[in-house]
Amino acid sequence: MIKQIFNSKIIEPVVNAVSIGILILFFIIVYSQVFSSQLGSADDALIAVAARNLAEGNGYALSVPYEGRTVPDKFSPGITIGPSLVIPASIIIRFAGNAFWAPGFTTASFCLILLLTIIYFIKKRFNLTLALLFSITLIIFLYNTTAGNHFFHWYLILGEMPATFLNILALIIIAYSPYRRKYVVISCLLFGLAFMTKMLSLLGFLPLLVWFLISLIREKNNRRQLMFNYLLGMVAFLTPFILFELWKFISLGFTGYINNWIAFLQLFSHLSLVKEIAASSIIDQFILRNDLLYNQFGFSIYVLLVVSTVTSVIIFLYSDKKFIKLLFVLLMAGSFLHLFYWLFFSLGWIRYVLIGLFLYFAALSSLVFIKLPKGIIPVIIILLIIVFLKPLSELKKPISRFQQTGFNYCLRLENLQKTVSFLENYKQDKPFISAWWASVADIEYAMPQLQNFKQFNHLTNEDYSRNLIIALNTKFMAPRFHTDEFHQWNKKVSKVLFEAPPYIVYIRKPEMKILADSQIIDFSKTGNSDSYITYGWGRVENSYRWTNDTAAGLSFILPYPAKDTLTLKLSGFGFLAKGKIKEQEVSVFVNKHFITKWHVTGQNWYNATIPPDFIIDSTKVVLDFKIKNAASPASFGYSVDKRELGLCVKKIVID
Q1: Does 196 share its domain with 255?
Q2: What is the mean pLDDT of the chain?
Q3: Closest Cα partner for 521 from 499, 545, 500?
């Protein structure tokens, strides 16, 4: 293409210099965000915590209370970004400490190194100018796609962008020499690393497997040799996964390894398939997702289909090189597999479509290799960029952020530093209290030590006997994050201690409220249970309240001193999982004294006697229910509800 456009050899060095200059400017913007705007999303901060745990020898673990866990697993099933990214990040953190920039530096550098490697292999196949033009075209398309709400994928420790570049590099290498053993093995190894970066990138590998199969069917003379090469490729693909699983098995042992896989599969089952499809038609689902795609990126599935059709015609009519055709087909096929998955089988989160879009624009970028009459290909590429172009206001956002902060901390990171310094003054009151993992993941990463938090609905009565310091990133406390249960619990907060938006710190001092004269605790929506529950309870649901852990507690002061034996009466029923659980075995404690064991089944009154000498100062009562068979509906497969349900309580009466 270049020789047809430019007759003078002087032009090519100019094109090369301009291309290199654009790449440098682009990565200056990216690295400025690495140093100024880290830990900006929930998942990013969570993976940063995992990398820090690994760096400090705590295992491939999460030390925030993920899904309520108070003790980190050695290999947490909740780490959704793979070791291809987490391990390099942990190495950087090992040497740099928990610097804010360390996680994002890993992502940006990963992408830069892979892009330079792409340039190297294309240069080997064609020349430096075409290699740079392909890279510049790809960067322009990807910048346009991510500018605005998705640019953080370049500099946060999320897997989509590194997995995409691994996919592209793998396909360029296999297209470079599709039958040679060395290139087959390297390509498959890169796909294995992509899979261990983001599992979803496996979809991009499937077209290559199909092509392997077609090649074996078509090739008759060297079929055995080719099959051996592809088998070695599959071994290379599986090697990163096998090494990681071997590490996990050695660390956890057989039982721990099996339990870890069970926990992972349970998590994966909630994140993989769309639960709403049963309630709506496939057409409605398609329309909904297509509208979402248009609202996020400014183009629809129909535009993608039309442009891919036109581009395919150009590629196959005017390209005389197998490299270009094979690269285009594999990239475009991988792209549409991702899009198909997102449209019909995913939960619909916009992140799940990104790799597909990135591969799509990599396929379009391969147009730079086509030989057409003078100037036609640049015009086509410019027209394609215009078709997908976002509004100028969106395109300017990364540049505006660079102009505002440069390489200095943004206001949010400055306030995160202040929050961490403030919390250090209250370290005697650790563990601090979180609403859910996303509300404290960035604080956890930034703290001098790890394991700083306990989730509000997993507290014990011992916790309620001390000052509770509650820290939050309010960005993740909106209603869409289903935080109403925490907000209901947090009504009892004494006062705000510190505020540096989006961070806020509360203190909740120990207190016991006097029981109403009726001595009835009502768990309905109009009842008074909020005043007496301490830990292990869910939100109020109409006329009752579930316990959502293996233990739950209440505390109160009797309206008058207890001189005689009291009777505790509980109205409610147990979670029996539609007959799969025989009963809920509940041990009842008053002020740490065991008083009875209930075998709770259906709706009934369950009674226990309380000796007066068990009551502190004749008035103070701390009730604990230890629930042996609590379980989540999700564990039985008929609901996505992951709460550990045990008792459903309507009323408690003290006589």
Answers
A1: yes
A2: 90
A3: 545
